[in-house]
Amino acid sequence: RIFTRLGLNFRSVEADTGTIGGSFSHEFMVLAETGEEEIAVCESCGYAANIERAETLPPSPDGKKEDLKPMEEVPTPGRHKVDDVASYMKVGPDKIIKTVFMMADDKPVVALVRGDTELNEAKLRRMVGAQVLRPCEESEYKKIADCDVGFAGPMKLKAHVVADTLVPGIVNAVSGANKKDHHMKNVNIKRDFEPNVVGDIRNIRPGDHCPRCPSKIKFFRGIEVGHVFKLGTKYSESMKANFLDVKGESHPIIMGCYGIGVSRIVAAAIEQNNDEWGIKWPLPVAPFEVVISPLNMSDAKTAEVSGKIYEDLKSGGVEVLFDDRDERAGVKFKDADLLGIPFRVTVGEKSLAKGVVELKDRFKPKAEEVPIDKISALVLQKIKDASSQNRVKNG
């Protein structure tokens, strides 16, 4: 409700709980091309998650049968990157088993992913129940694989091995041979290696199917402006923070927490609301709701009318900026657009001669002429209407 009332275009997305922990969390992401995070969204069913959390589906059987071939060691001098090995071995990246060496709470873990996908470290950390996950150093890699970096395969590794759900579907795969400048072809799961566990540990990709419905996933960038955590009993159990139920039995309190990025909201609102002239503040977050722009403060009538409108709006609870600078009209208009104040009331000698002033909505291309005696009431009504619309949208 808060972010909707602020006029932001946002998504609540499933997120990794990180070091705060707990069983579940949601981030609130304002959609913006400059966003620091990528989020996966299904526009059919509404599923949304950040990349750390976005689920991938296990592969569907394709019905193709391929006979298992005997393993064969192949010299691959100087080639250890997936694309280089795939080109040299004349196979696609989807035929390669990529090994990623990690330390999970200082215990070795090897992740196996298909060559055309990327390891999701947050998923791996959750799967092995680790607090801290980091890449292996070169000495640790050599100790686990007994070979130089870049040439390890899934066979005979001295570590806990986790395979992504796509790996069992690779028949006659290519992998490292656990020997410098060599790779193996025709490597097959169960016959040649056996992971300790198989699960979803890869990043979701554009075009992947939604984990909740048959539609395909789309990607957006977002700025995180809020985060809620379902902590469960993680902290209450350790603190012995209990309550008594109706039967008098003691239970740990169920906890949750949230945070809102106040300064991030300001940045996100600007990212979503601007044009070539400057900021276009949504009314609820604007530094001022109205700017009064008298074109000639040395004219007594202009000063009088401007001052009265200013006082009327202030007494109505409106936040008003009075631009009484001795500047040209163009400068005042440009500055008002740059600052992005939602409404501008322009008071000039020519319009006063007609008994009107100009009202300009920052979100609309043209100004309208309003009778002097009705301008304050009209502005108050427009502000009230905008606030009411937000309340209706939020129930």
Can you walk through the features of this model?
This protein is of the alpha+beta class and 395 residues long. 24% of the residues lie in helices and 29% in strands. Strand 17 (274-275) and strand 18 form a beta hairpin. The chain is elongated, with a radius of gyration of 31 Å.
Task: State the main characteristics.
6-stranded antiparallel beta sheet; single chain; 29% strand; 5-stranded mixed beta sheet; alpha+beta; 395 residues
| Range of helix content | 10-25%
Count of DSSP strands: 23
Low confidence ranges: none
Q: β content, as a range?
A: 25-35%
User: Major beta sheet, specifics?
Assistant: 6 strands, antiparallel
Can you describe this structure in just a few lines?
The protein is of the alpha+beta class and 395 residues long. Helix content is 24%, strand content 29%. The strands form six sheets. Strands 1, 2, 3, 4, 13 and 16 form a six-stranded antiparallel β-sheet that branches. A five-stranded mixed β-sheet has the order 8-6-7-9-12. Strands 20-19-21-22-23 form a five-stranded mixed β-sheet, sandwiched between helices.
Write the SSE topology.
Blueprint: H1 2-5, E1 10-14, E2 24-31, E3 37-41, E4 48-50, E5 72-75, H2 82-89, E6 97-104, E7 107-114, H3 121-128, E8 133-135, H4 138-145, E9 160-164, E10 173-176, E11 182-187, E12 197-199, E13 218-232, H5 234-239, E14 242-244, E15 250-252, E16 255-260, H6 262-272, E17 274-275, E18 278-279, E19 290-294, H7 300-315, E20 320-322, H8 329-339, E21 343-347, H9 349-353, E22 356-361, E23 368-371, H10 375-393
Parallel strand pairs: 7-9, 9-12, 19-20, 19-21
Antiparallel strand pairs: 1-2, 2-13, 3-4, 3-13, 5-11, 6-7, 6-8, 10-11, 13-16, 14-15, 17-18, 21-22, 22-23
